[in-house]
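Quick one, probably user error.
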C-alpha cells in the first residue's frame, strides 16, 4: 500500500521532478521503510517490482542532480544546500547499488541493469565533483597564512621571521561537517566500486596542497653539492633559520593535520588512508628532513658550523615524538628513518667539531705574548665557543657520547656525566696551553698576572653561563683555589722583593737605615715601573688585588718610615726620595696599579716632584722640635 501511494503521488505531480528538489526526504520516503538487502528481493515477483521502483525513483532524483558540463549555470553543491538532501541523495545511491547487485545476480542482460549503470555513473560523477569541491575548501583551511611569503628570498627580515613564527593554532582546523561529508562521499564511492576515482582525486589535491605549502615555506630538494656551494654564501644562515621555522610548521601543522584528515575520511580502510598519507607527504617530508643531513655532510670545517648543526639537531630532537607518531606507518617509515639519519649525522658532526676544537688548541703554537697580561685571544674564543654551546643543554648531553679517554676523572672533573667530562677536559687543555704561553713573558710576575686574568676569565664565564650547571660547583671551587694560588704567586714574585728591603731588626745603625731605604726606593720604583702597563681585567678582582698588596706593604713601610724619618731626613740625598715615597704616596701609587694605561701613573709619580724640598726640611725641623719636647716631658 505504501508503494502504491507513492506511485500515485508521483503520477499526480510529474512536473515537480523537473524542479530543483527541495525536500528529497519526503519524496523518497519509501526508502526509509523498505530494506534493500538481498533478502528483500528473495521473492521473485515482489523483489522485481521493488527493484524497478528503486531504479525509477533513483532516476527521478539522480537525473535532476546530473552535471551538465556545457551549462554556464553555477555549480550548486547538494551538501552546501542541505545536509538532509545530501543524506537522501546518498541513500538513493545506496539503494541503486543494491538494486544493481540484485540484477547482476538475476539477469545480466536486463535493460534495467543498463539504466542503473547509467544512473550510477551520473551519481558518481556528481559525487566526484562534490568531493573535489569540499576537498578544495578544506585545502584552504589547511594552509597557514604565514607561509604565503614566498621561498625564493635570500634573506629574511625581522617581519618575515615574525610571520614564520606561527603556532599550530594559527591554522584553522578543517570543519568537522566538511570532514563528515567527505567521509560519507568516500564511503559511498568505495562501496559502489568507484574507490579508485575517489582516491586518485584525493591524492592529487592533497599532494598539491602539501607541496605548495612546503614550497612557500622554502622547502625544496637540495643535493649535498648544492649545499657545499651555498654554505659559504653570506646569507646561508637565513636558509637555516627558515628551515628551523618551516620544520615546526610542517610537523605540527601540515603533516599532523594531513594525517588527521585522511584518518577521518577513510575510516573504512587502513590501507587506503596509509596510501593517501604516503602519497601526499612522503616526498616533501623526505626533502624536509634531508636538509640537515646535507649540512652535516658539508665540507666546511665542523667547528665553524657547530651552532648551526646544534640548532638543527635540537629542532629534530624536540619534534621527535611527533615525527614518530605521525610517520608511524610502514609506508612512510622512510621519513622517520631520514629524520633519524639526519639526527645521527648531526650528532657525529658536532662530536667531530669538538675534536677539531681540542686539536686547534693543541696546535696553537703562537709565541706572541699579551704584553699587559690580559686575556689571551685563544682563551676568549674558546670560552665564548663553549659558553654558547652550553646553552643547548639536554641536546648537547645527547650528542656527546662517553669516551674511554674521559672516563678517568681528575680533581678538575668531578661530574661523571659525559658532557661534563668532555667540556672540563677541553677547558683543562686550554689551561695547559695558557700555562705554556705564560712562560713566554719576560717577567715571572707578569706570567702569574697573565694566569690570574685568564683563569679568572674562565671561572667567570662558567659562573655566568649554563656551563656552571654542566661543570658543577665543585669544579668552580677547585679553580677558585687555583686562582688564589696564582694571585699569591704574583704578589710574592712582585712585592716580596720590596718588603725584603726593610731591615728585620728595627735597632739598626743610621747608615744601615739609609741603605735599606735607598734599596727599598729603587726596588719599588723598579717593580712599580714595570707594572705601569699591566692590567687586571676584572674590576672587582683588580680592587681586591690592590687592597691585598697595600695591606701587606704599606703598614710595614709606614712603621719603618715613622721610626726612621728623622735619621733619613738628615741625609739630603734621601730627602727627595722621602717626598716621593711617603706612606701616603705609596698607598696612592698602589691604588693606581693596573689602570690599563701608563699615563695616569707617570703623571701621579711626577706630580710629587713639584713639592719644594724646603717644605720637607721644615717638616723635619718641626718633627724634631716636637720629639724633643716629648723627651723632656
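Nope, works fine. Designed sequence:
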Amino acid at each position: 500500500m505504501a508503494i502504491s501511494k507513492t506511485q500515485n503521488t508521483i503520477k499526480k505531480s510529474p512536473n515537480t521532478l523537473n524542479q530543483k528538489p527541495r525536500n528529497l526526504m519526503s519524496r523518497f520516503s519509501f526508502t526509509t521503510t523498505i530494506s534493500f538487502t538481498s533478502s528483500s528481493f528473495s521473492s521473485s515477483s515482489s523483489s522485481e517490482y521493488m527493484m524497478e521502483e528503486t531504479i525509477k525513483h533513483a532516476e527521478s532524483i539522480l537525473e535532476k542532480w546530473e552535471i551538465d558540463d556545457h551549462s554556464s549555470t553555477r555549480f550548486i553543491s547538494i551538501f552546501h544546500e542541505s545536509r538532509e538532501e545530501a543524506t537522501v541523495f546518498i541513500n538513493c545511491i545506496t539503494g541503486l547499488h543494491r538494486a544493481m547487485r540484485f540484477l547482476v545476480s538475476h539477469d545480466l542482460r536486463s535493460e534495467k541493469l543498463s539504466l542503473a549503470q547509467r544512473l550510477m555513473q551520473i551519481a558518481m560523477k556528481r559525487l566526484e565533483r562534490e568531493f573535489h569541491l569540499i576537498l578544495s575548501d578544506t585545502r584552504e583551511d589547511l594552509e597557514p597564512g604565514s607561509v604565503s611569503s614566498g621561498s625564493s628570498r635570500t634573506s629574511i627580515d625581522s617581519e618575515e621571521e615574525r610571520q614564520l613564527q606561527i603556532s599550530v593554532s594559527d591554522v584553522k582546523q578543517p570543519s568537522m561537517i566538511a570532514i563528515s561529508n567527505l567521509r560519507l562521499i568516500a564511503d559511498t564511492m568505495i562501496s559502489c566500486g568507484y574507490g579508485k576515482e575517489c582516491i586518485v582525486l584525493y591524492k592529487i589535491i592533497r599532494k598539491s596542497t602539501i607541496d605548495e605549502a612546503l614550497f612557500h615555506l622554502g622547502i625544496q630538494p637540495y643535493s649535498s653539492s648544492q649545499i657545499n656551494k651555498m654554505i659559504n654564501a653570506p646569507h646561508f644562515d637565513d636558509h637555516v633559520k627558515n628551515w628551523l621555522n618551516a620544520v615546526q610548521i610542517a610537523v605540527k601543522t601540515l603533516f599532523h593535520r594531513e594525517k588527521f584528515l585522511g584518518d577521518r575520511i577513510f575510516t573504512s580502510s587502513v590501507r587506503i588512508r596509509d596510501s593517501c598519507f604516503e602519497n601526499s607527504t612522503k616526498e616533501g617530508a623526505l626533502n624536509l628532513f634531508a636538509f640537515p643531513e646535507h649540512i652535516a655532510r658539508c665540507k666546511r670545517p665542523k667547528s665553524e658550523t657547530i651552532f648551526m648543526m646544534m640548532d638543527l639537531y635540537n629542532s629534530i630532537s624536540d619534534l621527535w615524538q611527533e615525527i614518530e607518531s605521525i610517520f608511524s606507518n610502514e609506508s612512510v617509515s622512510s621519513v622517520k628513518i631520514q629524520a633519524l639519519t639526519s639526527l645521527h649525522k648531526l650528532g657525529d658532526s658536532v662530536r667531530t667539531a669538538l675534536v677539531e676544537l681540542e686539536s686547534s688548541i693543541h696546535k696553537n703554537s703562537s709565541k706572541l705574548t699579551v704584553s699587559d697580561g690580559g686575556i689571551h685571544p685563544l682563551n676568549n674564543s674558546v670560552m665564548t665557543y663553549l659558553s654558547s654551546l652550553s646553552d643547548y643543554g639536554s641536546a648537547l648531553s645527547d650528542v656527546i657520547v662517553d669516551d674511554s679517554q674521559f672516563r678517568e676523572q681528575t680533581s678538575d672533573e668531578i661530574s661523571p656525566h659525559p658532557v661534563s667530562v668532555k667540556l672540563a677536559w677541553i677547558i683543562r687543555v686550554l689551561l695547559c696551553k695558557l700555562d705554556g704561553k705564560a712562560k713566554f713573558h719576560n717577567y715571572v710576575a707578569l706570567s702569574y698576572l697573565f694566569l690570574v686574568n685568564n683563569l679568572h676569565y674562565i671561572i667567570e664565564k662558567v659562573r655566568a653561563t649554563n656551563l656552571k650547571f654542566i661543570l658543577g660547583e665543585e669544579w668552580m671551587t677547585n679553580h677558585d683555589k687555583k686562582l688564589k694560588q696564582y694571585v699569591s704567586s704574583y704578589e710574592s714574585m712582585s712585592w716580596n722583593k720590596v718588603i725584603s728591603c726593610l731591615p728585620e731588626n728595627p735597632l739598626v745603625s743610621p747608615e744601615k737605615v739609609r741603605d735599606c731605604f735607598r734599596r727599598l726606593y729603587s726596588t719599588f720604583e723598579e717593580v712599580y715601573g714595570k707594572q705601569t702597563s699591566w692590567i687586571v681585567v676584572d674590576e672587582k678582582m683588580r680592587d681586591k688585588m690592590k687592597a691585598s698588596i697595600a695591606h701587606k706593604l704599606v703598614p710595614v713601610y709606614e712603621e719603618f718610615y715613622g721610626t726612621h724619618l728623622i735619621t733619613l731626613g738628615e741625609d739630603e740625598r734621601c730627602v727627595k726620595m722621602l717626598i716621593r715615597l711617603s706612606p701616603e704616596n705609596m698607598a696612592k701609587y698602589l691604588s693606581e696599579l693596573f689602570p690599563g694605561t701608563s699615563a695616569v701613573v707617570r703623571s701621579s709619580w711626577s706630580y710629587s716632584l713639584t713639592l719644594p724640598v724646603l717644605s720637607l726640611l721644615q717638616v723635619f725641623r718641626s718633627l724634631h722640635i716636637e720629639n724633643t719636647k716629648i723627651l723632656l716631658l
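The CA atoms of residues 167 and 249 lie 7 Å apart.
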